[in-house]
Amino acid sequence: MPSFTDISRLTVLAIAGLCLLVTATGLRADDISSCPLDFWVEKPKKPPRPAPGTPSTISADEVRAEGQEWVEFTGNVELRRGTERLTTEHLRYHKPTDTVEATGTVSFETAAKERFQTSSLKLRIEDEIGETGTARYSFGLIPARGEGRKIEFLGPGITRLHDVTYTTCPEGQDSWFLKARQLDIDKNEQLGRARGVRIDFMDVPIFYLPYMYFPIGNQRQSGALPPRIGHSSTFGSYLEIPYYLNLAPNYDDTFTPRYMTKRGLMLRNEFRYMTQNSEGSFSLEGLPRDQMANEERYAGYYHHQQKLDARWSTTIDLRGVSDKQYLADFGDHINITSQTHLPTNAELVYRGQRWIFTTRVLSFETIDTTIPVADKPYQRLPQLTLGLQPGGIKNGWQPHFDGEWVNFDRRNTTLTGLRTTARPALSYPLSKAWGHFIPKAGARYTSYNLNNAPDPAPSLARGFASLDTGLAFVRDTSYWGRAYQQTLEPRLYYLYVPAKNQNHLPVFDTALADFNFDSLFRENRFTGGDRIGDANQLTLAVTSRFLDDRDGHERLRLSLGQIFYYADQTVSLPNGIGVDNRNDSDLVGDMILWLPSHWYMRLSAQYDPRSDRAQKESLTFQYQPDRRRIVNLGYRFVRDQVGQSDISVEWPIAGRWTARARTLYSFRDDRNLDSYLGAEYNACCWAARVYAYRRYDDTRGAVNGIHFEFQLAGLSKYGKVPESPLNQSLFSFPAPASAPKE
Fold first, then answer.
1. What was the pLDDT predicted at 731?
2. For 394, 434, 599, 731, which has the most beta carbons within 10 A of its beta carbon?
3. What is the rounded CA–CA span in Å between residue 731 and residue 664?
4. How far apart are CA 407 and CA 419, in angstroms?
5. What pLDDT band is residue 698 in, cutting at 50, 70 and 90?
């Protein structure tokens, strides 16, 4: 828990942060929030108004002329100009200046859905210049409401309010108010400017600011972003106050000082840019002195994408950290802290109608100190690939090609060199609605130019042949009172690749592919280019789908398959990895279920019938009855390697209260790897969230922390909490497929 000294330091820093907010409250384009009632609506670039010269019409019980210039209207007066409308008991109209003066119970609604209720109004109609007395107002497109001692109309889209209250809460909910001596609302720039500001929450003043400005739309705006406050066992208590600079429409910068009571002051800067043909960002962060490590620490990231013309493009990704423990110390998510390698990549890509060419430079910084040199990935300096995209031909000759030339390099190792691979092939697909027949034949060629190897130039060439065939049977059926079309789709896939000893070849980037239903139809059981897996095998698989008769959507898909071997496999990776000398493989299957009651399920399994044991299982459930409720249940099992459950939920529990939680639990280690639990109170115009989290780190053990967030909708948000399970998409289910057309 934070000490009294820590809290004192944070108090001082919080005061400093509020001083920064005196200048402005900024808004980045990616900081827009939305409440459950869709607070933010799309706003036009300029507020709507009647076209110039639109005539005004006035009706009343009595009309009386006052000389040549004035006309007086009394009793049920209504003025209309386009979609603008003014009603009152008494109105005088000055013809030379096109000005109206209204008294009584005045109600004025503009084309931009602004509503004003006052006892007096003076307005030059065409120019939209005028003023009211004491008035109540509401801005329908923002939305916001309040009262002002005086309201001035300074032209189209610009309103000035004096001694005003301002809130985005709906009528009857006065949770918070911004009170200002003067407030300018500029809908052209989607910006609010306030002077002499006080913010009251539940009738308690929480901020006093001499000046501030804030967004009333989704326009980016320079200024201090809301601060983030929290506590972590690795940071101590921390406070960060980002300052956003909207430098130009196509580039911006965010500078963020972050003070951590255990580690000191971290400085972070992110620069983003976008042009007609490119976009990118550059981020750098660091501590001049980490108080716990007693050294300077930093990290950097650069990303750039460039479209050179219609077919050529380039991408650059550069990453780096000062030391191996940086991500473990400062990462705030298990997907970051569990990274073992940081990739650095630069590539140039050509995409033609059929051909794709890529030249790439790829290297890795290994940040896991427990990984031995022999297991670190090779750098590709450079890598060139050439591929021929399938032409989508259903009945005719189809050429295929996949080639690569790559230079593998790695520090502190002797075996390096060049590898060239080529995989030409030719197929003749025949496809109908009732089935397919696809014969295919080709060759694979691999050659090397090695350094410090007994054989500096080994090579290998193997031909292959395959036949992929299947049928589709359809019948009408019904279950539980609902009609379906059920398909039965048996599939046979035969693959032949002659064997040849490849133990003399190096292993630069090759591994055994994951065994699942899709891999039953792979042409090579290895990934990478260092092994050509021998095969004389037949895959027998079957898929059944249930298509809803009412809408044609697929509600259930069942798939099951197995490989039968006609010869022993001989090609392997070191230690015999990749050889299965049995007569048949494990059974693998998939099941995807879409239920009308908002339940979704996916099951993937690998089962060994000889040992009568499951080798791998992946089971996910998702229940999402509406956009505010979700339950995710997941389980992943790999024998002797992984046994994990992943459960997350977001659910309203009472009134405006919502609970959020997630836990990633390892049964093998008997501990939670990553978890958080928290609650949110969302009143639409304001929200408060608090979350406690616990993450396991291999170096430090359990890392605990707490996050806070407080939001005034349409004004600002303070703090940072874990992303909602509704947005995380922990489990992603495809939409139900529709029935195929003949």
1. 59
2. 731
3. 13
4. 6
5. low
Predicted confidence at residue 9, as pLDDT, reads 42
Q: Rounded CA gap, 427 and 442, in Å?
A: 9
Confidence of residue 719 (pLDDT cuts 50, 70, 90): low
In this predicted model, what pLDDT tens digit does every residue of 640-656 receive, in sequence order?
A: 888 999 998 989 888 88
Q: Which helix (H) or strand (E) holds 177?
A: strand 176-186
Other Cβ atoms closer than 10 A to 622: 21
Residue 348 corresponds to which tokens in the numbers above? 């140039």
Find tokens 């005196």 and name the residue: 22
Per-residue exposure over 589-621, b if at least 16 CB sit within 10 Å of its own CB, e if not: bbebbbeeeeebbbbbbbbeeeeeeebbbbbbb
More confident residue, 562 or 658: 562
Question: Residue 23: how many CB atoms within 10 A of its CB?
Answer: 16
61-108: pLDDT as tens digits: 999 988 888 999 999 999 998 888 999 999 999 989 889 999 999 999
Q: Please give the angle made by the CA atoms of 516, 518 and 524, to the nearest 5 degrees.
A: 90
Find the distance separating the first CA and the last CA of the chain, reported in whole Å. 66
Token pair for residue 92?
A: 């005088």
Q: Which helix (H) or strand (E) holds 599?
A: strand 599-608
Q: Is 504 exposed, middle or buried (0-12, 13-18, 19+ CB in 10 A)?
A: exposed
CB burial readout 525-544, b (16+ within 10 A) else e: bbebbbbbbbbbbbbebebe
**Tokens at 688, concatenated:** 């408060």
Buried-exposed string 123-146: b where 16+ CB fall within 10 A, e elsewhere: bebeebbbbbeebbbbbebbbbbb
What is the pTM (predicted TM-score) of this model? 0.74
Whole-angstrom distance, CA of residue 142 vs CA of residue 42: 9
The answer to whether 32 and 207 have CB atoms below 8 angstroms apart is: no
Alpha carbons 412 and 371: distance in angstroms, whole number? 13
Q: What are phi and psi of 12, to 5 degrees?
A: -60, -45
Contact 399, 442 (CB under 8 A): no
Backbone angles phi, psi at 9, to 5 degrees: -60, -45
